[in-house]
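for the writeup, i need someone to sanity check this before i put it in the appendix. the sequnce is what the collaborator sent (i think, or maybe the updated version? ugh). structure was predicted straight from it, no edits. if anything looks off just tell me and ill rerun, i have time this weekend
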Amino acid sequence: MKLMVSIALLFLLPSYASQTSVVHIESTPKPSTDGVIQTETEKIVSLVCILTGTVDNKELEWRRNGAVIKLDDGNKENRSSVCINPVIYKDEGAKFTCQLKSNSSHSASVTLNVTYLAEISGSENVTLEEEESLDLQCDMRANPLVTSVTWKLNGALVDLSTGGFIVSNNGVNTKLHVKKVDRSLHEGEYQCTIASPAYEERSRTFQVTVTDKTLKFPLMPMIAGLVVVGLTALLAIVSRWRIIARWFKK
Protein backbone atom coordinates (compact mmCIF):
# COMPACT_ATOMS: atom_id res chain seq x y z
CA MET A 1 0.00 0.00 0.00
CA LYS A 2 2.86 2.41 0.90
CA LEU A 3 4.55 1.62 -2.42
CA MET A 4 1.41 2.56 -4.37
CA VAL A 5 1.12 5.91 -2.54
CA SER A 6 4.78 6.71 -3.28
CA ILE A 7 4.31 5.96 -6.98
CA ALA A 8 1.22 8.20 -7.09
CA LEU A 9 3.14 11.07 -5.51
CA LEU A 10 5.92 10.74 -8.05
CA PHE A 11 3.39 11.17 -10.86
CA LEU A 12 1.86 14.22 -9.18
CA LEU A 13 5.08 16.13 -8.50
CA PRO A 14 5.96 17.02 -12.12
CA SER A 15 2.41 18.27 -12.68
CA TYR A 16 2.55 20.54 -9.61
CA ALA A 17 5.98 21.91 -10.58
CA SER A 18 4.81 22.81 -14.07
CA GLN A 19 2.05 24.99 -12.59
CA THR A 20 4.40 26.94 -10.27
CA SER A 21 4.95 30.46 -11.61
CA VAL A 22 8.50 31.61 -12.31
CA VAL A 23 7.38 35.24 -12.10
CA HIS A 24 7.50 37.26 -8.87
CA ILE A 25 6.50 40.88 -8.10
CA GLU A 26 8.22 43.11 -5.55
CA SER A 27 6.75 46.51 -4.74
CA THR A 28 7.18 49.72 -2.78
CA PRO A 29 5.15 49.97 -0.64
CA LYS A 30 4.99 46.25 0.10
CA PRO A 31 1.77 44.34 -0.62
CA SER A 32 -0.27 42.46 1.95
CA THR A 33 -0.31 38.65 2.00
CA ASP A 34 -3.24 38.68 -0.42
CA GLY A 35 -1.45 40.95 -2.91
CA VAL A 36 -3.09 44.28 -2.04
CA ILE A 37 -0.96 47.44 -1.98
CA GLN A 38 -2.27 50.18 0.32
CA THR A 39 -1.56 53.72 -0.94
CA GLU A 40 -3.00 57.23 -1.32
CA THR A 41 -3.44 59.72 -4.14
CA GLU A 42 -0.32 61.74 -5.07
CA LYS A 43 1.90 58.92 -3.76
CA ILE A 44 4.29 56.78 -5.85
CA VAL A 45 4.01 53.00 -6.27
CA SER A 46 6.96 51.08 -7.77
CA LEU A 47 6.50 47.56 -9.13
CA VAL A 48 9.35 45.23 -10.10
CA CYS A 49 8.73 41.95 -11.88
CA ILE A 50 11.48 39.36 -11.48
CA LEU A 51 12.00 36.14 -13.42
CA THR A 52 12.96 33.54 -10.80
CA GLY A 53 13.13 30.44 -12.97
CA THR A 54 14.77 29.20 -16.16
CA VAL A 55 12.72 29.49 -19.35
CA ASP A 56 13.51 29.66 -23.05
CA ASN A 57 11.76 32.99 -23.70
CA LYS A 58 12.59 35.52 -20.96
CA GLU A 59 10.43 38.40 -22.24
CA LEU A 60 8.02 39.78 -19.62
CA GLU A 61 4.76 41.61 -20.16
CA TRP A 62 2.80 43.97 -17.88
CA ARG A 63 -0.96 44.43 -17.95
CA ARG A 64 -3.23 46.90 -16.14
CA ASN A 65 -6.75 45.52 -15.76
CA GLY A 66 -6.03 43.26 -18.71
CA ALA A 67 -4.69 45.98 -21.02
CA VAL A 68 -1.06 45.67 -22.13
CA ILE A 69 1.33 48.33 -20.79
CA LYS A 70 3.88 49.60 -23.31
CA LEU A 71 7.45 48.94 -22.13
CA ASP A 72 10.84 50.13 -23.33
CA ASP A 73 12.98 47.52 -25.06
CA GLY A 74 15.46 47.37 -22.17
CA ASN A 75 12.69 46.80 -19.66
CA LYS A 76 11.33 43.46 -20.80
CA GLU A 77 13.74 40.57 -20.16
CA ASN A 78 14.45 38.87 -16.79
CA ARG A 79 13.47 41.98 -14.83
CA SER A 80 10.84 44.62 -15.63
CA SER A 81 9.68 47.71 -13.74
CA VAL A 82 6.51 49.82 -13.72
CA CYS A 83 6.06 53.05 -11.78
CA ILE A 84 2.69 54.66 -10.97
CA ASN A 85 3.56 58.32 -10.43
CA PRO A 86 1.49 59.91 -9.15
CA VAL A 87 -1.28 57.62 -7.95
CA ILE A 88 -4.73 59.01 -8.83
CA TYR A 89 -8.20 58.05 -7.65
CA LYS A 90 -8.81 56.15 -10.91
CA ASP A 91 -6.07 53.71 -9.82
CA GLU A 92 -8.34 52.45 -7.02
CA GLY A 93 -8.88 48.72 -7.56
CA ALA A 94 -6.48 48.59 -10.52
CA LYS A 95 -4.92 45.15 -10.99
CA PHE A 96 -1.33 45.01 -12.30
CA THR A 97 -0.21 41.67 -13.71
CA CYS A 98 3.25 40.61 -14.85
CA GLN A 99 3.53 37.50 -16.98
CA LEU A 100 5.73 35.65 -19.41
CA LYS A 101 4.76 36.88 -22.86
CA SER A 102 5.14 33.37 -24.26
CA ASN A 103 3.20 31.68 -21.44
CA SER A 104 0.57 33.63 -19.52
CA SER A 105 0.15 30.81 -16.98
CA HIS A 106 3.38 32.09 -15.42
CA SER A 107 2.14 35.32 -13.88
CA ALA A 108 1.84 37.33 -10.68
CA SER A 109 -0.55 40.15 -9.77
CA VAL A 110 -1.05 42.95 -7.25
CA THR A 111 -4.04 45.22 -6.71
CA LEU A 112 -4.02 48.86 -5.57
CA ASN A 113 -6.24 50.04 -2.72
CA VAL A 114 -6.16 53.84 -3.04
CA THR A 115 -7.60 55.97 -0.24
CA TYR A 116 -8.77 59.44 -1.26
CA LEU A 117 -11.37 62.10 -0.58
CA ALA A 118 -13.00 64.21 -3.27
CA GLU A 119 -11.45 67.63 -3.84
CA ILE A 120 -14.36 70.02 -3.20
CA SER A 121 -12.54 73.00 -1.69
CA GLY A 122 -12.92 76.53 -3.02
CA SER A 123 -15.89 78.71 -3.89
CA GLU A 124 -18.05 79.60 -6.89
CA ASN A 125 -20.29 82.55 -7.74
CA VAL A 126 -23.67 81.70 -9.26
CA THR A 127 -26.04 84.34 -10.70
CA LEU A 128 -29.52 83.56 -11.98
CA GLU A 129 -32.89 85.24 -12.43
CA GLU A 130 -36.09 84.89 -10.49
CA GLU A 131 -38.01 81.70 -11.38
CA GLU A 132 -34.99 80.09 -13.04
CA SER A 133 -33.85 76.67 -11.79
CA LEU A 134 -30.92 76.36 -9.39
CA ASP A 135 -28.51 73.41 -9.64
CA LEU A 136 -25.47 73.06 -7.38
CA GLN A 137 -23.16 70.04 -7.37
CA CYS A 138 -20.26 68.68 -5.29
CA ASP A 139 -18.00 65.70 -5.95
CA MET A 140 -18.35 62.97 -3.29
CA ARG A 141 -16.14 60.18 -4.69
CA ALA A 142 -14.06 58.81 -1.83
CA ASN A 143 -12.40 55.67 -0.48
CA PRO A 144 -13.43 54.85 2.21
CA LEU A 145 -16.91 55.94 1.15
CA VAL A 146 -18.31 59.26 2.35
CA THR A 147 -20.24 58.76 5.58
CA SER A 148 -22.12 62.08 5.61
CA VAL A 149 -23.15 64.87 3.24
CA THR A 150 -24.67 68.15 4.43
CA TRP A 151 -25.99 71.24 2.62
CA LYS A 152 -26.26 74.59 4.38
CA LEU A 153 -27.75 77.96 3.39
CA ASN A 154 -26.36 80.99 5.23
CA GLY A 155 -24.97 78.72 7.94
CA ALA A 156 -28.16 76.75 8.63
CA LEU A 157 -28.99 73.26 7.38
CA VAL A 158 -31.15 73.33 4.25
CA ASP A 159 -34.76 72.60 5.22
CA LEU A 160 -36.03 70.06 2.70
CA SER A 161 -39.61 70.52 3.93
CA THR A 162 -39.78 74.14 2.75
CA GLY A 163 -38.36 76.20 -0.09
CA GLY A 164 -38.64 73.50 -2.74
CA PHE A 165 -35.14 72.12 -2.11
CA ILE A 166 -34.28 68.68 -3.50
CA VAL A 167 -31.01 67.00 -2.47
CA SER A 168 -29.79 63.84 -4.24
CA ASN A 169 -26.69 61.64 -3.96
CA ASN A 170 -25.59 58.98 -6.44
CA GLY A 171 -22.28 57.98 -4.88
CA VAL A 172 -20.34 60.16 -7.32
CA ASN A 173 -21.97 63.57 -6.85
CA THR A 174 -24.27 65.27 -4.39
CA LYS A 175 -26.71 67.74 -5.96
CA LEU A 176 -29.01 70.47 -4.68
CA HIS A 177 -31.87 71.51 -6.96
CA VAL A 178 -34.59 74.19 -6.85
CA LYS A 179 -37.10 74.25 -9.70
CA LYS A 180 -37.96 77.98 -9.45
CA VAL A 181 -35.84 80.28 -7.32
CA ASP A 182 -37.29 83.03 -5.14
CA ARG A 183 -34.88 85.76 -4.04
CA SER A 184 -36.32 85.90 -0.53
CA LEU A 185 -35.89 82.14 -0.04
CA HIS A 186 -32.91 81.06 -2.12
CA GLU A 187 -30.37 83.89 -2.32
CA GLY A 188 -27.27 83.56 -0.13
CA GLU A 189 -24.23 81.42 0.59
CA TYR A 190 -24.57 77.67 0.14
CA GLN A 191 -22.10 75.17 1.53
CA CYS A 192 -21.80 71.44 0.86
CA THR A 193 -19.69 69.42 3.31
CA ILE A 194 -18.59 65.78 3.05
CA ALA A 195 -16.91 63.55 5.62
CA SER A 196 -15.02 60.24 5.37
CA PRO A 197 -13.58 57.99 8.13
CA ALA A 198 -10.05 58.48 6.76
CA TYR A 199 -10.14 62.28 6.30
CA GLU A 200 -11.34 65.46 7.95
CA GLU A 201 -14.45 67.23 6.65
CA ARG A 202 -14.11 69.21 3.42
CA SER A 203 -16.42 71.88 2.07
CA ARG A 204 -17.22 73.95 -1.01
CA THR A 205 -19.20 77.20 -1.03
CA PHE A 206 -21.50 78.76 -3.61
CA GLN A 207 -22.48 82.43 -3.46
CA VAL A 208 -25.89 82.54 -5.16
CA THR A 209 -27.26 85.89 -6.37
CA VAL A 210 -30.84 86.14 -7.65
CA THR A 211 -31.68 89.05 -10.00
CA ASP A 212 -34.99 90.41 -11.34
CA LYS A 213 -36.63 88.49 -14.11
CA THR A 214 -36.08 90.05 -17.54
CA LEU A 215 -38.57 89.95 -20.39
CA LYS A 216 -37.18 87.77 -23.12
CA PHE A 217 -38.27 88.28 -26.73
CA PRO A 218 -38.35 85.36 -29.16
CA LEU A 219 -35.56 86.55 -31.44
CA MET A 220 -35.92 84.10 -34.33
CA PRO A 221 -39.70 84.56 -34.79
CA MET A 222 -39.16 88.34 -34.73
CA ILE A 223 -36.49 88.13 -37.45
CA ALA A 224 -38.72 85.86 -39.54
CA GLY A 225 -41.62 88.30 -39.17
CA LEU A 226 -39.47 91.25 -40.20
CA VAL A 227 -38.24 89.37 -43.27
CA VAL A 228 -41.84 88.59 -44.30
CA VAL A 229 -42.90 92.21 -43.82
CA GLY A 230 -39.90 93.46 -45.80
CA LEU A 231 -40.50 91.08 -48.70
CA THR A 232 -44.21 91.99 -48.78
CA ALA A 233 -43.37 95.68 -48.92
CA LEU A 234 -40.79 95.10 -51.65
CA LEU A 235 -43.26 93.12 -53.77
CA ALA A 236 -45.85 95.85 -53.32
CA ILE A 237 -43.38 98.51 -54.53
CA VAL A 238 -42.36 96.42 -57.55
CA SER A 239 -46.00 95.81 -58.45
CA ARG A 240 -46.81 99.53 -58.22
CA TRP A 241 -43.85 100.47 -60.43
CA ARG A 242 -45.06 98.00 -63.06
CA ILE A 243 -48.54 99.60 -63.06
CA ILE A 244 -47.01 103.08 -63.41
CA ALA A 245 -44.76 101.92 -66.23
CA ARG A 246 -47.73 100.49 -68.15
CA TRP A 247 -49.69 103.71 -67.68
CA PHE A 248 -46.86 105.82 -69.18
CA LYS A 249 -46.55 103.45 -72.17
CA LYS A 250 -50.19 104.15 -73.02
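The chain has three helices and 17 strands. The two ends are 137 Å apart (CA to CA).
thx in advance!!
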